[in-house]
Amino acid sequence: MARVELKNVRKVYPGNVEAVKNANLNIHDKEFIVLVGPSGCGKSTTLRMIAGLEEISDGEIYIGDTLVNDVPPKNRDIAMVFQNYALYPHMTVYKNMAFGLMLRKYPKAEIEQRVHEAAQILGIEHLLDRKPKALSGGERQRVAVGRAIVRQPKVFLFDEPLSNLDAKLRVQMRAEISKLHTRLQSTMIYVTHDQVEAMTMGDRIVVMLDGVIQQIAPPLELYHHPVNKFVAGFIGSPPMNFLEGDLVAENGALRFHDKSHTLHIDVHESQFAALKHYAGEKIILGVRPEHFLENHSQQAAPGRSMTANVEVVEPMGHEVYLYLDVGGQSITARIPVGETEPAVNKPHVLDIDTQGIHFFDIQTEAAIT
Amino acid sequence: MTGDRQRRVRDLALMLCIGSFGVLTLVPFAFTLNNSFRANYELDHAFFGFPENLTGLARAAVAAISGSDAVFSVETDTGELVEATGWDAAGRYWHAATKGYRVSWGSLRPYMINTFIVCGATTLGVVTLGSISAYILSRYRFFGSRLVFYFIIGTMMFPAALTLVPSFVVVRNLGLLNTYWAMVLPYIAGGQVFATFVFKGFFDGLPEELFESARIDGAGHFRIYLDIVLPLSKPVLSVVAIMNILGTWNNFLWPFIVNTDGRYHVIASGLYVLATTTFAQNYSSLFAAYMTASIPLLVLFTYATRPFVRGVTSGAFKA
Questions:
Q1: Which of A90, A177, B59, B99 could form a disulfide with B231 if both were Cys (CB 3.0 to 4.6 A apart)?
Q2: Do both A223 and A245 map to the same domain?
Q3: What is the number of domains present in chain A?
Q4: What whole-number percentage of chain B has pLDDT above 90?
């Protein structure tokens, strides 16, 4: 097993398109790290550079203590699971899994043992004689993972491996890959655009945008302490609500007024120190849908509640998603099923957990902490 | 109802039209097959007519089945008439009907062997070199690779007749006249263009991840070509092979001019030689020779049609 380190790595495509800009990343031994971000953010390119499938334009990549910039993929001791599985269609499952070992001239008995062990772990022993076209999507996915396992590589690379599966199977395979990591105790680098996968699987998450690493942190730290508006909006579902407005000092306290002056929120004491320099300036407020609280009395309390017009009500079973209009700005709230019954096109009062709210600089969009 | 009737009339008209084309296509074949069973004296009297030996065979078979002891006079290979009854007569009629085949086979056999050798070597060469060239043009990114490809494709624009004399001069100067190489090497060179074009199109369509996966598994270019690309290219391999065999089998002019002493004639040029010399007056054997010459291609098409069609349409539909 091994650590992976990226030092000032850049990838520039012809036409001067910079896909990855100065990436620095230190992945620990046995760590499960997830690269997440929207399409075109450079996450797959980063993974492919680690795999050796893309040349790097600048910087250094280490696997273990070895600089692998010029090492071909086959000598990097990595295994990769592709989005579309990339199984060899003309080979049986057994041969698909054994192919890498056969090329490395492993003894036949060892190949057989490793393939059967991996097949047992993944529950695909009964599929070994089949060809990929005779397998379901989930089974193909397992074979692709099995092909990586048999190699016992230093590092596993996953490039959006669950994207082609249906929602139910995706949840199941997500848990299985996590279990596999616990069992194999190996370094795994996982690329996804799905923040739920990132949050549930990763020891740490790397959030990327436009080729730049925005933040590297454990899932809950990302959730509670996003470094900027993008990370705050990307992590969490439904996403964080953002409202532009003014921060005003009033009677020794700080209060946020949204630009339509229909929402007024008192800043929690714990954020005074960071925000006092922004008094009198425009600022962005960020509130996660779950930080809206039910107001049983439906009586608005100045500074810690809001009245909004209900546009859509989505009952989810144990909770309700409310799509609201606050002074022309749309926001989403997520409240437990309770005593109040929000009605469409009617005003509804919600409290706000002021300790959970975030503020962002309107120019840099950096979190103000 | 009116709509149904209109559709039926339209279908009938379409079927008649297609059927007519089918008949027109089959007429020369049927004519040749029919005449190959006729004796020369029959052909001298009338060019059209049913083979007398086959009608005799039918009559003798009916007599044998019905237990009749009718006597039939059948001509032997030497031209004598012998009398026979029942199945013996039927057998003799068959023997007489197929005389042309037996006579022609002796002359045709060396040409057939030459054709198999030339076709085999050419197809192997074209498929091997064409697929390797296409793999390189498809997978390697080198300076001018696209230009090289366009140059290769561009050579398809030259009519074969244009290169006939220069090619002959080259082959003669290399001292290859009257050898298999005089046919095999130019055929491989010529066949490669089409093969490279078809193979490259197919290889370009293979998913990039397959190659990447193989690279990570530890395969180099040669292994990828041999273990991944070739097995996946079976349909297109069969297309190239069949097209090549067809072209080589039917090529008349080139083998005719590079075999000045006639030792290495192939089917097409050999048939011409037979038609103008040995069988110039022996139409029965000539027609039989034509039929024999077409049997290998018929067999090839019977067994290779399915992969051929699959190969031609591969890539047209998402798998």
A1: A90
A2: no
A3: 2
A4: 65
The residue from A230, A265, A293 where one domain ends is A230
The range of the structural domain enclosing residue A82 comes to 4-230
Q: A99 and B210 in contact by Cβ < 8 A?
A: no
The predicted structure's pLDDT at residue A339: 67
Predicted confidence band at B317 (pLDDT cuts at 50, 70, 90)? very low
Q: CB–CB of B33/B50 below 8 Å?
A: no
Q: Is the peptide bond preceding residue A238 cis, with omega within 30 degrees of 0?
A: yes
Q: Cα(B16)–Cα(A33) distance, rounded to whole angstroms? A: 70
- Give the mean pLDDT per block of 10 residues along chain A (369 residues): 90 93 95 95 95 95 94 94 91 95 95 94 92 91 92 93 87 89 92 93 96 96 95 93 90 83 81 86 93 86 86 91 90 84 88 90 92
- CATH number for the domain spanning A220: value is 3.40.50.300
**Whether residues A324 and A223 fall in one domain:** no
Asked whether residue B318 carries a pLDDT value surpassing 50, the answer given is no
Question: Which chain A residue has its CA at the smallest distance from B211's CA?
Answer: A86
Return the exposure string of B4-22: e unless at least 16 CB atoms fall within 10 Å of the residue's CB, then b.
eeeeeeeeeeeeeeeeeee
Please judge whether A86 and B213 are an interchain contact, meaning their C-beta atoms are less than 8 angstroms apart.
yes
In a domain, A366, yes or no: no
Nearest to B306 by CA among B239, B257, B225, B209: B239
| A86 contacts B207? CB cut-off 8 A | yes
Domain co-membership, A213 together with A106: yes
A225 with A249, same domain: the answer is: no
Q: Do A315 and A282 share a structural domain? A: yes
Question: Any idea what the CATH number is for the domain that residue A257 is in?
Answer: 2.40.50.140
Is A90 within 8 Å of B217 when comparing Cβ atoms? no
CB-closest option in A86, A89, A99 to B212: A86
Question: How do residues B113-144 score in pLDDT, each as one tens digit?
Answer: 999 999 999 999 999 999 999 999 998 888 88
Q: Check B218 against A89: CB less than 8 A apart.
A: no
* Per-residue pLDDT tens digits for B242-294: 899 999 999 999 999 999 998 899 999 999 999 998 888 888 899 999 999 99
Nearest to A259 by CA among A243, A271, A280: A243
In a domain, A272, yes or no: yes
Return the exposure string of B195-215: e unless at least 16 CB atoms fall within 10 Å of the residue's CB, then b.
bbbbbbebbeebeebbbbbbb
- By C-alpha distance, the chain A residue nearest B207 is A86
Q: What is the residue extent of each domain of chain B?
A: 31-97, 101-313
Q: Please tell me whether residues A85 and A26 are part of one structural domain.
A: yes
Superfamily (CATH H level) for B101-313:
MetI-like (1.10.3720.10)
Quote the Cα angle for A86-A90-A91, to 5°. 80
**Beta-carbon count within 10 A of A128 CB:** 18
Residue A169 located in a structural domain: yes
Residues A207 and A291 in one domain: no
The pTM of this model reads 0.81
Residues A94 and A223 in one domain: yes
Inform me whether the C-beta atom of residue B218 falls under 8 Å from chain A C-beta atoms.
Answer: yes
Residue B1 has pLDDT above 60, yes or no: no
Say yes or no for a CB contact (<8 Å) between A88 and B218: no
Q: Of the residues A230, A253, A279, which one is the last residue of a structural domain?
A: A230
Distance from CA of B212 to the nearest CA of A (A): 7
The pLDDT value recorded for residue B319 is: 37
Interatomic CA distance for residues B200 and B203, integer angstroms: 5
This complex has an ipTM of 0.84
How many C-beta neighbours within 10 Å does residue A104 have? 12
